[in-house]
Request: fold
Amino acid sequence: MPIEISEKTVKRDFIEKISKLSGQDVYKCYQCGTCGGACPMSDHMDAVPRKIMRMAQFGMEEAVTGSKTFWTCASCHSCSVNCPRGIDLARVMEAIRLLTLRKNLNMVEVSGLPAETVEELPQIALVSCFRKLTS
Amino acid sequence: MKISYYPGCTLKTKAKNLEEAAVASMAALGIEFEELSRWNCCGAVHSLADDDLIHHVAPVRDLVRAMEQGSDTVVTLCSMCYNTLARANMLMRQDETKRKTINDFMSEEKDYHGEVEVLHFLTFLRDQVGFDALRAKVKTPLNGLKVATYYGCTLVRPRDVSIEPTGDRQLMKSFLEALGATPVDFPDATLCCGSYQILSNPEAALDVVSGILGSAVSAGADALILSCPLCEYNLAKKQEHLLESNKIAKKIPVFYFTQLLAVALGLGGEACRFDLNEKSAVEFLKAKNVPVAASV
Ligand code: SF4
Ligand code: SF4
Reply:
């Protein structure tokens, strides 16, 4: 399916928000795919991290924020330590997450969790999950 | 100078086996740490957004507590706490603007500039105790125990807080050798266990977990050590389920590194709280003639 990329479609403010929040320059990415190769969760992502970077470069806000990639990310920093361009991709994922979470949306509904799950999980699992996936 | 010990939430509840084995081992090694008298949850993860300073307040407050106690070092056992405290500390050392904002925000506290060093207990064992000295204190060598060294993420990433140069995988190896065990390095030793995705995307997390466990077994390990209660939950507590759903071919016993330390130091397993490990893990130790507490 052809994708139209033009001055009209490129959301510059979206690119700016990502770089401001993450401190990373998405244009540095040269699409080698090392990040996805290092990513333990990539099999379960609808778009590999490399693709997210490409879409971010083109300011494709809806495609990026509509993907599940950044919700599937475990913030493990494998991509970040392996990127040959020195991009801290974990920060880019966090920026995209926050752009959505800050609209008061939750990825995990705390009140909907089964009591046994909460009882069984170590505290750090709950705290880290809520920190990353709730607003 | 004094050394503070920061336990963190999970070690006082689900991971008593990580903590109690360590505390007993410290006593056996003549190490004196002072537990922070007033500590709070570190937040478990480091905030990665440039404008999100509020989440650094919790770990920095813990570091202020250590400074107040007159310590120049704070030691942690949990990998996630280590990572969160060490990165907050780095931020306070390196970023003048953010440091000022955070200090101003905590106006009731003393200003903090990164005065305290954050160490993981494994680093402390390597650098302050020394593995030769440790070997000399071993009373029950873990001969014939082939143990996979699982680091996960937070001990080794990002690079600037890694407990050893990323990719080296020497620290746990030397640690196990000092205890008389046979370390087994395996390809997935530093792969993420899926972390908190066990809650939000269990299918994805369990796929990674199966891979890690299979990789350790294929490398010839008959047990695995780690230092993070979240890794322990994913890699140990989920094994039964993975076996039932045919995602792994066999189980592998999982222990906190401090538990093997304590038994090797001749503490007889009394302090190890093996009751919190999987039953099959305890059976394994018994079969290998490693002492576990009589009650387990
Ligand atoms: S590893 Fe870095 S340069 Fe390569 S595709 Fe990923 S982000 Fe881009
Ligand atoms: S930080 Fe996220 S995107 Fe990067 S390797 Fe880990 S799980 Fe994948």
